[in-house]
Amino acid sequence: MSYAVKEMFLTLQGEGRQAGRRAVFLRFAGCNLWTGREQDRAEAVCQFCDTDFVGMDGSDGGRYRDAAALAARVAALWGEDRAHAFIVCTGGEPLLQLDEPLIAALHEQGFEVAVETNGTIAAPAGLDWICVSPKAGSIVVQQSGDELKLVWPQPGSDYEAMERWDFAHFLIQPMDDARGAANVQAAIDFALARPLWRLSLQTHKALGLR
């Protein structure tokens, strides 16, 4: 199959348990919880997304004809030494497109493959790191993985049920919106009250990274 890519770039992972790690970010176009159009935001399941995932006009964006072509471009962005090669597949919702052939092609290029997903689509086999960020009002079918990252506050989130899911790490992350400091304090208070959870911050935004 072909793949619609919004953008790809080399950076440092900015949040979660992999924060600070060199990574190629592969952002797929499209999402199943919001169209990406502002006029549709108020009716969307996810109303707080701060990412542009519409179209294929970003750096190294475009439609890649097959898994091998996309994996080759990812490898070119990383460079020659693949000893610790790491890719984060994100979106939008990456699991609308990320499949086993692409995972295999990325592995052949020497990459450890991570995904950041809303969890409404079951993850394909072969992934090395699964981060699920559930959105209130959605049905999460991917209830296992490496990292559960709950953006906070999200009214309607059943975090007590989430604590029974099969994840190695539980992270609470302040929502990046106009409430700013109030959201940070809410996330701090949450982590202080529930020691299973750790605070995650978007360090890439503080550092001016993509």
Structure report:
It is a single chain. This protein is 20% helix and 27% strand. With 210 residues, it is of the alpha/beta class. Strands 3-1-2-4-5-6-7-8-9 form a nine-stranded mixed beta sheet. Helix 1 packs parallel to helix 2 (100-108). It is globular and about 45 Å long.
Write the layout of secondary structure elements.
Layout: E1 3-12, E2 22-28, E3 62-64, H1 67-78, E4 86-90, H2 100-108, E5 112-117, E6 129-132, E7 144-152, H3 159-162, E8 166-174, H4 181-193, E9 197-199, H5 203-207
Parallel strand pairs: 2-4, 4-5, 5-6, 6-7, 7-8, 8-9
Antiparallel strand pairs: 1-2, 1-3
| Share of residues in helices | 10-25%
CATH T-level topology: TIM Barrel
Residue fraction in strands: 25-35%
The major pleated sheet works out as:
9 strands, mixed
Gross geometry: globular
Strand order of the largest sheet: 3-1-2-4-5-6-7-8-9
